[in-house]
């Protein structure tokens, strides 16, 4: 549902607010980037979460569910390798993750029926099958809400690096939307985030004056629309934006150049690895939910080259995932944060077991009926491969899992009851995860 009315998507009242914030170096690409993600209450659990989104749909058969004995039209070109957990094998192009298999769980045979990118992404980013009449909140919005709005903080509780269009606040309202960084960091360099760094030579005194003007505008709007959820989101962000821009703590949290070279080195030099490094720093600083993104998995053509070698401008997808995710797991453990950080890694679906002939090399197409997901951290008992696919990785061998089950387990890991009900603005009761059950073996 559209919440703005002008040709560029912003109401006049919102435009005035965006203009004031923009003059302080806080301009973001759209209104949702101006919505804050909640304030952390002292009573909230000490859990944080990192969601790694793999848009495009990674091939399960070439990553974490290889079938080396399948017929040639299914098997693919990659070989399995042993991990540090006896009996579990993964792709040869994930050697670093193989060495830390004891830190995460592979869910195999995850299955659903939504083969379109947008619908699949909405499903795995919320844990509820999409409905045309309702927009479910993403994991970050729910976690931001469940940390309760009580004590102000100079750090956002929900950060997207660089963004994740599917991690939306949904019916919870824009005040639970993420702070999008708008870019990825570079290892060894100060990371300038719009809304975090002072730009254009502005001084703190100038920001203070503009904050005073914003407060006057707020008072005027509040008298007209005191019950506006949209205004509430803007009011809360304006307070937090002021704290962020004037806070050394906040700016330092986003500055990965402050990490020691020894700690940063395993993350590599590519943007995804640097984003993983930033995620460890944000969680360490008190951010409750960070979403990261590594796209490009829509490998209808040249599947194995794109996965292993890349296109010359960037390395292959599997080496990027291998380096960044393994460094994330090991880095969190090194900082003493792995037990207090839940991690969820997924794309929107798997890819067809049978190889197509769209290119000389071949590729794989959309395939929601069988896929993988990874979870780690918190109370997860790593070193497990749960679930199983059939001989060609075409279907779950038994009952399998659903995205709803994985979502319920993710929420369970951060201490949130997935059966809890919220109410929409119209009073409609909505469960956090409509279907699905906690996968108890993940925590056994």
Entry summary:
This protein has two domains: about 1-35 and about 195-250, no CATH class; about 40-190 and about 255-444, Alkaline Phosphatase, subunit A. Helix content is about 30%, strand content about 10%.
Notable traits:
2 domains; 444 residues; disordered N terminus
Topology:
Layout: H1 12-23, E1 48-53, H2 72-75, E2 80-82, E3 89-91, H3 95-98, E4 104-110, H4 117-126, H5 139-146, E5 158-161, E6 179-180, H6 204-224, H7 229-245, H8 248-253, H9 261-264, H10 271-285, E7 289-293, H11 303-308, H12 317-334, E8 341-346, E9 350-351, E10 366-367, E11 371-376, E12 384-386, H13 403-413, E13 421-423, E14 429-431
Parallel strand pairs: 1-7, 1-8, 4-12, 5-6, 5-7
Antiparallel strand pairs: 2-3, 4-11, 8-11, 9-10, 13-14
Helix pairs in contact: 1-6, 6-7, 10-12
What does this 3D model show about the protein?
This protein has 444 residues and is an alpha/beta fold. The chain folds into 2 domains: 1-34 and 194-252, no CATH class; 41-192 and 254-443, Alkaline Phosphatase, subunit A (3-Layer(aba) Sandwich). It has helices at residues 12-23, 72-75, 95-98, 117-126, 139-146, 204-224, 229-245, 248-253, 261-264, 271-285, 303-308, 317-334, 403-413, and strands at residues 48-53, 80-82, 89-91, 104-110, 158-161, 179-180, 289-293, 341-346, 350-351, 366-367, 371-376, 384-386, 421-423, 429-431. Strand 2 and strand 3 form a beta hairpin. Helix 10 (271-285) packs parallel to helix 12. The two termini are 42 Å apart. Residues 1-44 have low confidence and may be disordered.
Number of helices: 13
CATH superfamily of the largest domain: Alkaline Phosphatase, subunit A
The average pLDDT value, as a whole number, equals 83
- CA-to-CA gap between the ends? 42 Å
Strand order across the largest sheet = 6-5-7-1-8-11-4-12
